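Please, structure for the following, as tokens.
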Amino acid sequence: MVKFAYFPGCVAKGSARELEDAMRAVVGKLGIELVDMPGASCCGAGVMKQANHKLQLTLNARTFAMAEEQGLDVLTPCASCQGNMYDDLRLLLDDEVLCGEINEILERTCGLRFNGNLKMRHLLDVIIEDVGLEKLAELVVNPIDFPVAGYYGAPMLKNGANGDDDPHNPVYLEQLIAVLGGDAVDYDGRVRSVGFPALLSREKTAMKMTAEVLSGAKQAGARIMVSACPLSHFNLDVYQVHAGKITNKDTSMPVIHLPELLAYALGFYVERFAQLRTRVRIIGG
């Protein structure tokens, strides 16, 4: 078993409990053990640092220190959390003075100290680099036998934030889709932003960005989209009808979370998988 301190992200604990359900279902079969960090705070989601980056750094350093107390790296299924926390981890490691200031706050307020003895990992790179595609292939029960558009989530696409994958031309998600039996669709939008959190202040712009990704995937032949970023999933799924109305583009496509795709392929939640296949025939065609 590969053990990690688990950082689910706010979406998995709130508006998308299906993500948390699927995550908990698949990890044991993949040989991953999740160790909870009760009381870990929001990573900032790319919003907090615009108002107070030092506060965000302190909160994320606290999470890092909690993981360090367990001697574990941090694992998250969220590309936004991964990119945000990866940036803060690198900044703290590279700036000794700033790290000292943050540690002074941590020690004064909660008795913790960040030492830098950990890594931030996303579920995708852990599966590819730690679990391995060969082992994953052996576990597939229900092949995903339709064209799938993978969506990474822009915050994770930077050097080192998705393991050894190329941030400019990533392949990990497409490799995973292929091993699960799907036809990984090649389209430009797989590495583009959908404008979260600009949705809160520039809704029309975010909807145009969202529509470009969805319509581009559909034009390339995808019948379903799988997202490695729960925050982006919010735009892609909940707001896809709105995005289509604003842009007059065809945005109709089932969008699911990466752990859900894994869960269905590995034999969990077969009733949800049956419902998804119906949605693919009706919506994704």
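Residues 183 and 276 are 16 Å apart (CA to CA). Strands lie at 2-6, 32-36, 74-76, 120-122, 147-151, 161-164, 183-184, 224-227, 255-257.
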